[in-house]
User: Which sequence fits this backbone?
């Protein structure tokens, strides 16, 4: 302990004595540590940071297991009530109902319905006002509780919010309370509000018993998860047999619910690349610091020699040097915490303000906790091994006799180690910048790709299968900002079409005659559907240009008869989406191909091979609208109007949002890798500049000799540049090969098609531009010390010891 | 053998060869001599004769290429680095020409340094021994000063205190007055004499006959070998003649 304290004291003194070095090292490491801590903060929130409720480890949720195909059967409110009535699994349990989104005081907000005992069961109280109670729930009071985030964001932390009546769509609700910061309601992100479950049936116009809920509760004391699961399974089977006369398709699961998600392979697939990208900055920073410490080790060779001469064992001096480095790293970790908070705030601000097309993104900065602090300390210590161990070992590998006489041994100028570090830095910067360029080019490509339909003033509206559909259609047609309305089946179905080339499996859609005008799909030849052909039985069809080429490659398709038969290889499509088959239609028009939208690598709303006519009144069809002015205003207007008829049942999306979504989605990795790449390049350049400056200073005498022997300024400058560019070249090569290798690896996975269509993995321009940028930047950084080498005065240099 | 007559250090046919590329430089070519407890020996000779190399090997800073080196009758010529560091710390006190104090440490910390590398010495004992060593060199009043705040002579006295603090078997001094003016040089030599009078064993390298006179015994070196004084003079005269001849023929050519 005494030795450790002495080492710490000496380390503190050394740090204070060289404030420039200390500042450089701490800043560099703080940046890297802060970035990885920011990623860890997100992982921590999702996986480790339980919600701020009483004893979260006691909480379990009842879920219906996912069947092999399709959606799981919902766990209903009636089942929840029966579970509480017929078993004693839970000491206390609540039901969490569906989440709704609403216009609240002109802002779009979302939140779940929860049973009246939800807050009591979780052991949380409101930070302001009160939470609602079972009595509020039973009475069906129109009350809500706001989250801290919503109170701050949408109500500007209004101190008079409690008891205030606010408009939720067109209905009046009273605000009962505001929940404390950190309470997320057993979710990863806090909702904006919580509503009593009793209102769910009314607002969503569904039977309360049939309402899908999740049961969450505290297991009865002394009951293990396995015992509880066994009891749950027995109860579920018995109840299913009694009520349905059959066993349930899938069993119930009992899972811990602490407001986090389990650390799964999918989660790792997301976080590993993030840690890699952010960790690269830390690695590059470590390389910079290692280079600095290698140079410092040469300066301190005499001190090390004296200590060794006085009988210090080498490991003892290594330990002392590492203590200094650990202290630097811990200082950096403390600053890194601040960096991580800044980064998280910046990322949340960027994502919520710049990527509106990806929907209402509800992000909050993850709160820090002891795990983040522990992670930073651990990362600082691991980083110390990266940046300090090799310099410490090098600094203590001295020739004693020469060191104590102040002579610098040749092997103490570790050029190989320095070059390796520079190459490593260049590689990291190259990897990140190549990735940034690939994502940028892919984003541009996505933005430039035409979906084949109008997007500026059009929107899709999905109507529910409801008796009110006609009234909804009238409401939409009555909205003044809606210029035209067309209908179409929401998804394309497949049939066998017989043309000149035989039977071909083709996709088709039922569309109303206005569909082509609304979406601006041009007819290359022929005509559209006539007003009198608004029926699924009308024997006319419009085919796409590509279908025309496939079905009648050598003939004029117009006027040709085509036969539609069911495709025996496919499951029967949903009722109403396919006209009676077989049928025969005459081709009256040829429409331009519709490429459709791309979203996450998937094609959305791609045009079918053929169109058959229907009327907009056909049940099960979606609507395409042409609007006057801003589609967003139309969406809000329609939302207000339609919610009076059937709230939360109509989905609307402006097509311009769909068109932007893929490009915006790609902007996230682009900006991420660009910012990281720029940081990496900056660190690399500063490292390269320092190393070359140091080498020039070390070789002043040698340069003087070269001058004296007749070398020109240009040759000396070129020599210095060549010395810098050897490791840069190696780094560039490795940096280009690594993403190419990863790309090739990705294309060997099952997700190859998806990835290949979304990201231009091997875009030569992206590679070339990134590498040229790095070469130019490195040349700039190396030029100054190289010119300085060229301008060294041989007379002065030869007098240098 | 009588304990008093047994040598502290026994060197037998000690050799040191430096290899640079394909050139062999024989720095020591078969050196024999003993150092007994309480000896004060001066090693003299011209530059490049091998006296500093010999001192480095004596101090276990360097290893011989051949021959035997017994310290307290134990062979030490082929110990590993850690073992040599252990012996250096306990048995040997160094006084360097350039003082070699660590600039970041105070006088107290510099003197304490060898003790911090020794296990089993508590803080209080270290303190007492540091004070005692500094009292002996009359530098106890400068405990909190840094080396840069001291004169050359004072720095060398602190270096002597550092060499003494571990109570070594022998003090090795490499040109201890080389960086000092004559007044400070005399003062340091006086200090070494005092230490010797107090029982210290000292082996000093010097090329200055004024200071070798302080020692009980002088060893003369030439071309890596120990020679007697008469031979040294003869060899020096031959060397001088050769240089003069070379210079003359060089001019006539």
Assistant:
């Amino acid at each position: 302990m005494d030795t450790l304290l002495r080492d710490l004291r000496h380390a503190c003194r050394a740090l204070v004595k060289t404030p420039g070095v200390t500042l450089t090292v701490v800043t560099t490491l703080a940046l890297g540590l802060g970035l990885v801590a920011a990623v860890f903060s997100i992982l921590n929130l999702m996986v480790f940071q339980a919600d701020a409720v009483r004893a979260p480890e006691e909480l379990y949720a009842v879920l219906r297991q996912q069947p092999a195909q399709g959606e799981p059967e919902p766990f209903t409110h009636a089942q929840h009530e029966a579970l509480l009535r017929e078993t004693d699994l839970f000491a206390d349990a609540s039901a969490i109902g569906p989440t709704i989104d609403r216009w609240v005081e002109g802002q779009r907000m979302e939140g779940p319905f929860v049973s009246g005992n939800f807050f009591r069961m979780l052991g949380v109280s409101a930070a302001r006002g009160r939470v609602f109670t079972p009595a509020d729930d039973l009475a069906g009071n129109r009350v809500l509780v706001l989250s801290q985030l919503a109170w701050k964001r949408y109500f500007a932390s209004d101190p008079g919010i409690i008891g205030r009546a606010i408009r939720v769509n067109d209905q009046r609700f009273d605000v009962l309370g505001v929940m404390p910061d950190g309470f997320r309601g057993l979710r990863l992100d806090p909702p904006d509000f919580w509503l009593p479950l009793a209102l769910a049936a009314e607002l969503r116009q569904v039977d309360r018993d049939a309402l899908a809920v999740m049961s969450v509760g505290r297991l009865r004391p002394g009951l293990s998860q396995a015992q509880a699961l066994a009891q749950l399974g027995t109860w579920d089977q018995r109840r299913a047999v009694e009520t349905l006369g059959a066993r349930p398709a899938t069993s119930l699961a009992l899972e811990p619910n602490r407001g986090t998600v389990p650390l799964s392979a999918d989660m790792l697939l997301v976080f590993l690349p993030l840690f890699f990208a952010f960790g690269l900055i830390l690695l590059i920073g470590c390389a910079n610091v290692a280079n600095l410490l290698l140079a410092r080790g040469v300066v301190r060779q005499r001190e090390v020699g004296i200590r060794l001469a006085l009988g210090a064992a080498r490991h003892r001096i290594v330990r002392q040097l590492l203590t200094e480095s650990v202290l630097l790293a811990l200082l950096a970790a403390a600053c890194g915490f601040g960096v991580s908070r800044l980064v998280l705030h910046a990322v949340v601000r960027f994502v919520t303000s710049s990527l509106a097309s990806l929907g209402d993104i509800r992000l909050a900065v993850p709160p820090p906790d002891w795990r983040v602090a522990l992670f930073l300390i651990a990362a600082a210590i691991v980083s110390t091994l990266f940046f300090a161990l090799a310099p410490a070992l090098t600094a203590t590998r001295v020739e004693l006799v020469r060191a104590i006489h102040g002579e610098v041994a040749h092997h103490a100028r570790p050029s190989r180690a320095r070059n390796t570090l520079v190459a490593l830095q260049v590689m990291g910067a190259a990897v990140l910048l190549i990735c940034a360029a690939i994502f940028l080019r892919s984003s541009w490509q996505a933005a430039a790709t035409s979906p084949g339909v109008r997007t500026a003033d059009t929107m899709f509206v999905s109507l529910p299968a409801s008796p009110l559909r006609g009234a909804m259609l009238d409401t939409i047609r009555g909205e003044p900002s809606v210029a035209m309305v067309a209908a179409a089946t929401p998804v394309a179905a497949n049939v066998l079409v017989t043309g000149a080339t035989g039977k071909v499996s083709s996709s088709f859609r039922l569309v109303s005659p206005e569909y082509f005008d609304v979406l601006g799909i041009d007819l290359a030849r022929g005509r559209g559907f006539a007003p009198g052909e608004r029926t699924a039985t009308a024997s006319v069809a419009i085919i796409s240009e590509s279908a025309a080429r496939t079905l009648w490659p050598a003939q004029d398709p117009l006027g040709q008869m085509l036969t539609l038969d069911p495709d025996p290889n496919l499951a029967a499509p949903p009722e109403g989406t396919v006209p009676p088959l077989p049928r025969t239609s005459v081709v009256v028009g040829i429409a331009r191909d519709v490429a459709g939208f791309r979203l996450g690598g998937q094609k959305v709303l791609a045009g079918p091979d053929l169109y058959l006519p229907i009327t907009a009144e056909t049940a099960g069809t979606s609507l395409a609208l042409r609007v006057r002015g801003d589609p967003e205003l139309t969406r809000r207007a329609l939302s207000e109007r339609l919610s009076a008829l059937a709230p939360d049942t109509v989905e609307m999306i402006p097509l311009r949002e769909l068109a932007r979504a893929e490009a915006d989605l790609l902007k996230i990795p682009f900006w991420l890798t660009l910012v990281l790449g720029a940081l990496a390049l900056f660190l690399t350049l500063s490292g390269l500049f320092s190393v070359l400056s140091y080498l020039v200073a070390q070789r002043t005498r040698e340069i003087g000799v070269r001058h004296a022997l007749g070398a020109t300024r240009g040759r000396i400058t070129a020599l210095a540049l060549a010395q810098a560019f050897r490791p840069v070249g190696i780094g560039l090569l490795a940096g280009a090969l690594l993403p190419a290798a990863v790309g090739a690896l990705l294309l060997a996975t099952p997700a190859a098609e998806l990835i290949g269509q979304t990201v231009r993995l091997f875009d030569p321009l992206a590679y070339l531009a990134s590498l040229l940028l790095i070469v130019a930047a490195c040349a700039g950084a190396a030029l100054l010390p190289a010119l300085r080498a060229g301008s060294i005065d041989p007379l002065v240099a030869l007098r240098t010891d | 053998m009588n304990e008093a007559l047994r040598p502290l250090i026994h060197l037998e046919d000690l050799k040191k060869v430096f290899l640079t590329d394909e050139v062999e430089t024989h720095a020591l070519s078969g050196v024999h001599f003993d150092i007994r407890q309480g000896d004060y020996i001066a090693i003299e000779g011209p530059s490049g004769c091998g006296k500093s190399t010999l001192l480095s090997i004596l101090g276990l800073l360097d290893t011989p290429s051949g021959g035997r080196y017994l310290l307290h009758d134990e062979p030490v010529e082929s110990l590993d680095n850690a073992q040599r560091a252990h012996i250096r710390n306990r048995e040997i006190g160094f006084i360097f020409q350039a003082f070699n104090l660590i600039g970041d440490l105070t006088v107290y910390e510099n003197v304490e340094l060898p003790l911090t590398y020794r296990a089993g010495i508590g803080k209080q004992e270290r303190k007492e021994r540091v004070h005692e060593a500094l009292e002996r060199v009359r530098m106890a009043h400068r405990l909190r000063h840094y080396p840069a705040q001291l004169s050359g002579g004072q720095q060398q006295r602190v270096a002597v205190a550092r060499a003494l603090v571990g109570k070594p078997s022998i003090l090795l001094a490499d040109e201890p007055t080389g960086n000092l003016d004559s007044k400070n040089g005399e003062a340091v030599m006086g200090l070494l004499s005092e230490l010797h009078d107090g029982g210290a064993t000292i082996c000093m390298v010097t090329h200055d006959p004024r200071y070798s006179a302080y020692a009980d015994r002088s060893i003369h070196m030439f071309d890596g070998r120990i020679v007697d004084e008469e031979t040294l003079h003869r060899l020096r005269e031959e060397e001088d003649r050769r240089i003069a001849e070379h210079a003359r023929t060089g001019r006539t050519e």
Notes: Chain B has a mean pLDDT of 87.
